[in-house]
Design goal:
Elements lengths: L1 E5 L22 E5 L8 E4 L20 E5 L2 E5 L21 E2 L3 E3 L8 E2 L4 E3 L14 E2 L30 E4 L1
Antiparallel strand pairs: 1-2, 1-11, 2-7, 3-4, 4-5, 5-6, 8-9, 9-10
């Protein structure tokens, strides 16, 4: 049996007074091959995408981990970290998720940092998985949501703008 999964992407950060916010990190990816019999039991959980920050200035929510357990082995594709929001400050994006116990473990990409300029405000992009899916940067506007599986949400692109949501994780068994 082949099993692969993505963790949920982190939500983007938000700021309300001056500047922009950074993007959420992408969920990790991992894959594993198992030998199973007809009576082999397994469990799984799909990681939710992190919510972009709403209301006051602050960080978006982290994405949830996607897990798959066969016997005593649990394979985990961790969710991405939420993007950061702080007024008038250059910020790093949310950390990419990490993967464990797969035959292949690939960390998610970090969210993009924000840019504070005299004429343009640029929110950080969402982190991408190995197959893409991170939200694009938003200039002087609301942020974009992550797309695909595990993509990070973008950071708000101007004062009071909406932060983007991360996209949910996924698991596939074949």
């Amino acid at each position: 049996v082949s099993q692969s999964r993505y963790g949920g992407g982190g939500g983007g950060g938000k700021q309300n007074n001056n500047g922009t916010a950074s993007g959420g990190g992408a969920g990790a990816y991992c894959a594993k091959y198992f030998t199973v019999t007809g009576s082999t039991a397994y469990t799984y959980a799909i990681g939710a995408g992190g919510a972009g920050k709403t209301g006051a200035t602050g960080a978006g929510s982290s994405g949830g981990s996607t897990t798959f357990t066969v016997g005593a082995t649990t394979i985990t594709a961790g969710g991405g970290g939420g993007g950061n929001g702080q007024d008038n400050t250059q910020l790093n994006g949310g950390a990419g998720g990490s993967a464990t116990n797969g035959d292949l473990n690939i960390s998610g990409g970090s969210g993009g940092g924000n840019s504070i300029g005299a004429t343009a405000q640029l929110g950080g992009s969402g982190g991408s998985t190995v197959f893409g899916g991170g939200a694009g940067s938003a200039a002087n506007t609301n942020a974009y949501n992550g797309s695909g599986y595990g993509g990070g949400g973008g950071g708000s692109g101007t004062v009071g703008a909406t932060a983007g949501n991360g996209s949910q994780g996924m698991t596939r068994v074949s």
